[in-house]
Write the structure tokens for this entry.
Amino acid sequence: MFDLDEFIADCRSALAADTSHKLVRDVVARAVSNPAAMLKVLGAPTRAEIQRLYHTNDLTILNVVWGPRMTLMPHNHQMWAVIGIYSGREDNIFWRRVPGDPKGRVEAAGARALCEKDAEPLGRDIIHSVTNPISRFTGALHVYGGNFFGAERSEWDPETLREQRYDMEKALRLFEEANVSCAAK
Ligand SMILES: [Fe+2]
């Protein structure tokens, strides 16, 4: 079974034992190994949203629900992360900075398809974009080794791939737009 308070406590102890993502990844992997138990507690995803489950200066835990076929532009976090999928799929494209580019542009560097029960660690400097490639909601635990909402971060314009300051409001609007386009179908 999945218990949210226990999960948060386990993440906290993992972080206390090792400040990297290593032990937290194990905690997330354990949680998503039983998607049915997680769905019982978090509910089946019905709308695209970023739900804060826990938030402090050194640890942020989110329930991220991606709308069908929704894409979020390349961005960084400036802290490690662990993504655990409990329903659906997430395609991650990884990007790297073009060396010496004055506009701070990025180029594609790799990709990883995440499926239900996967728990993927992302390093501190990773730049990724995320797509939900399927026609239903994807539900994922996103755990970050820091204050996700307080960090100075970057995003890259999806059309020009130029670097700009991360705009949390814009990201949240994208989730809302995904719900509007869902409702229109
Ligand atoms: Fe991200």
The radius of gyration is 16 Å. The CA atoms of residues 76 and 127 lie 5 Å apart.
